[in-house]
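A favour, since you know our structure tokens better than I do. Could you add the entry underneath, on a fresh line?
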Amino acid sequence: MTLANTEEEYGLIARLFHWLIAVIVIGLLPLGLFMTGMENSPLKFEIYAVHKSFGLLVFFLGLGRLVWRFISPPPDHLETHEHWEVTLASASHFWLYVCIIAMPLTGWLMSSAQEFPVPFFGAQLPHLIGKDEHLGELFRDAHGIIAYTLLFVLGLHVAGALKHHIIDKDETLSRMAYRTQGMMLPAAIVLVVGASFGISALLIAKDFLHNHPETPALQAAPAPAATTIPAAAPPDTSALAENGWAIVPAQSKLQFRTTMYGSEFTGDLPDFNGTIIFNPDDLSTARADIRINMVKVTTGDADRDSNISGEVWFASASFPQARYEAVKFEKAEGNNYVAIGNLTIRDKTMPVVIPFTLDIAGNTAHMKGDVTLNRLDYGMGEGEWEDEKTVGHDVEVLIDVTAIR
């Protein structure tokens, strides 16, 4: 057997490309259909990582196979093939090439747009595009449509190969396998192994989720006791009238940023408001009481949004609102200030100091600040999510507020 293709049969390199891609695709299709229905958990994201790694391997193998096809053209169709068979085979081959390139590519683009990690056997590949929820949904739909059409065309491809081998008894299948009939067994074994890959992964995952006894969650070391800052006296109406500021929601943003399996993602909390009293010439009367709607959270992916709002994370059904109460402000250099107060998320209250910059022009003020929190201090993501390798412990909060008098 030669490395390159000949006029009569495929060479070793073309056969390796063909059967490697076949094995992986036959394994990935059932695994992909199953994993999308799993509940969010570290296990689900580990299975996703395996799925993405092998999917990207198909992508790179598919590119290699296309290049090799130009370097070493495939053998011509057999003279015994009918015209309709040649046409159908050419169309199915074309779509199979489209699928093995487009399917992993749409998955890569979907993960990029939704700021999910793109692992490739331990390495993290870069995102191809920036965060875009609309594009993420578009590529998700395309990924699913291609998967179902691939199943259909793959079925046609296999049926055609079997028809030529069993009914027509020609050499169509043996040219991609072996001329010797007795050597057709290895090709069959490869197909069985590929199918077993997907079925085994499905059964193992189901067994783990439903039958494996739960192991006690590792308990995090108790956080050092933090003393909350005493609340300030309620502001009088005159201070509010003279130095009160109203947040402009359309020009303000509250975001958080952390990592999931080493890949950074950003979330938005678009619904927040509160009372601000601030006079840069008299900080003794400065106060702020900000309320944040924890039900409305957007990260670029609806499933992740739902998971973050759930009991393990924000528990927004039980604690729909977070609160930051700044009881003291201090001046630093230039237009830099520090807010000192208490942040309550869920049922946990911790002292939080927020450095920020402030620019006031007439009746408009623009404030920008950021602070890093530890999610475990607020009881978020405990149990199976506690490991920092799943979701980072440090969460950066980004504040950009415009207010008017």
In short: The chain has eight helices and twelve strands. Helices lie at 12-35, 42-71, 83-113, 133-168, 172-176, 184-210, 237-243, 302-309.
